[in-house]
Write a structure and sequence with these properties.
Length: about 350
């Protein structure tokens, strides 16, 4: 008897004989209702983010340096230590709530990604075993369906949620920092335009190198399939045809790989150097503002906490667009390879 628990999952496989050529339409068309739910959950993180940024300022200015205790909170008189404890517990609870919401969101995103990958693989398999792709060697079919498509499993659900979560998080952090001091806000975002200009240029180099590598590896695989025992028979010079071909392809692949490494790590180096330049401006400007009395110590402390959190969404966004360009290239390569009409 069929397991009842597995029946709904089996019926959930929704696929079509048509493979969408446009990568963005494919991403948006994967479980659209669940993607909308994920976007709504993403929007709920915005007020929680702002609250977790604002409370440290209150803790320093009112809880630690505050005067005039006891203070009335919701009709209850609280002494300084009690007031500080309440603020810290509130800060902890907000972070727990934010973490739990992100846990649910990430689980949903992972589910969307896996469902999309499952349906995409099934659709591609139908084409790979059809007449239009009968000329593709079996080893290349396996390579297309398994390793080349694996990257989509971790990205399909991210396509709609990462921009919403990370851009809204960055916007909330930057707004909070401008709220403390416009100069601090400017210092925090000064490097972003430079990164936004340089990163795409270097990323295009990386994508070109990866695209070339995929073509080279596929061609290399086809050549290996044609090797037989005679291919390894030595010539008078002592080297077989198979060894000669192997050395040529290996040399070309090595050159391509080194080109990819240089572009990839140059991109990482520039990102790191630009990231180190911002703290210099930030600490200098913030310190002067506190010394001159333009902002409170609590405002600077909260702004420092916010700045430390600003790097994470920016880094995730940079990685997102890198993955987007890479997976788009891989998707177009797959669609082109299976020759879908």
């Amino acid at each position: 008897m069929t397991d009842a628990a597995s029946a709904p999952d089996a019926r959930a496989v929704v696929t079509t004989d048509r493979l969408e050529r446009n990568y963005y339409r494919f991403l948006l068309g994967t479980q659209p209702r669940l993607q909308m739910l994920a976007i709504l959950l993403s929007a709920l993180t915005i007020p929680l983010t702002y609250a977790t940024l604002h409370i440290p300022k209150i803790i320093v200015d009112d809880g630690i340096q505050g005067k005039g205790f006891p203070k009335a909170v919701w009709g209850i008189d609280l002494h300084q230590i009690t007031f500080l404890v309440v603020l810290c517990v509130g800060f902890l609870l907000l972070n727990i709530a934010s973490g739990f919401l992100k846990l649910k969101l990430n689980t949903l995103v992972g589910y969307i990604s896996e469902i999309g990958l499952r349906d995409l693989r099934l659709t591609v398999l139908k084409h790979l075993h059809g007449e239009v792709s009968s000329d593709i060697p079996a080893s290349q079919k396996t390579q297309i369906v398994i390793p080349e498509m694996e990257a989509f499993g971790g990205f399909i659900g991210d396509f709609s949620t990462i921009p919403v979560v990370q851009i809204s998080t960055m916007g909330t952090i930057v707004y909070f920092m401008f709220e403390q001091s416009p100069l601090l806000g400017v210092a925090a975002i000064a490097i972003i335009p430079v990164q936004a200009f340089v990163v795409p240029i270097l990323q295009r180099r990386v994508v070109r190198a990866k695209k070339m590598r995929i073509r080279m590896v596929r061609k290399f695989a086809s050549t290996i399939e044609n090797f037989d025992g005679a291919s390894f028979s030595g010539r008078p010079d002592g080297e077989s045809d198979a060894e000669t071909h192997y050395k040529i392809y290996s040399k070309n692949i090595l050159k391509n790989r080194m080109l990819l490494y240089r572009a990839k790590y140059l991109l990482k180096f520039i990102n790191n150097m630009l990231a180190k330049a911002t703290p210099f401006l930030f600490y200098l400007i913030g310190g002067i503002l506190v010394i001159e009395g333009d902002i409170t110590l609590g405002s600077l402390t909260a702004a420092l906490v916010a700045y430390q959190q600003l790097d994470e969404p920016w880094r995730v966004l940079v990685q997102f667009f890198q993955r987007l360009s890479t997976t788009k290239m891989q998707y177009e390569q797959i669609v082109s390879r299976v020759a879908v009409d």
